[in-house]
Write a structure and sequence with these properties.
The protein has four helices and two strands, in the order H-H-E-H-H-E. It has 118 residues and is mainly α.
Length: 118
């Protein structure tokens, strides 16, 4: 009998972990506790230190596409945070989108399409 897979949108966090693991060595190699949030802060504070294989846009902000994908992934899962604001449950559609974002980010970081400049 074939086994049926049951999608679990709560596993959205696995997409975040994959992106974090891939980006860690490029963005914050010396931060053992790096996560997408701290990496986004690093990009914000030192965006000139990052380059991509994509042509640089007219404004010279080469890291902007990767940053936007990281931010969408990070901010898309509200249930991992506590606080006064209500959280949204993960949906299957959001989890699928997160996996696609994470797959692209993982590929970009492990292939060298995003680099840290000296």
């Amino acid at each position: 009998m074939a086994r049926v897979r049951s999608p679990d949108p709560v596993r959205y966090c696995e997409a975040i972990k994959a992106a974090e693991a891939a980006a860690h060595a490029v963005i914050q190699p010396n931060n053992a506790k790096a996560n997408l949030g701290t990496m986004l802060g690093e990009i914000k504070n030192a965006r000139h230190k990052f380059a991509t294989a994509l042509p640089t846009p007219a404004d010279g902000d080469a890291i902007a596409p990767a940053e936007a994908m990281m931010r969408a992934l990070w901010e898309g899962q509200t249930s991992r945070r506590g606080g006064q604001a209500p959280t949204q449950p993960e949906t299957l559609g959001a989890a699928r989108a997160a996996v696609h974002l994470a797959a692209t980010l993982v590929q970009w970081f492990v292939s060298g399409a995003v680099t840290r400049t000296p």
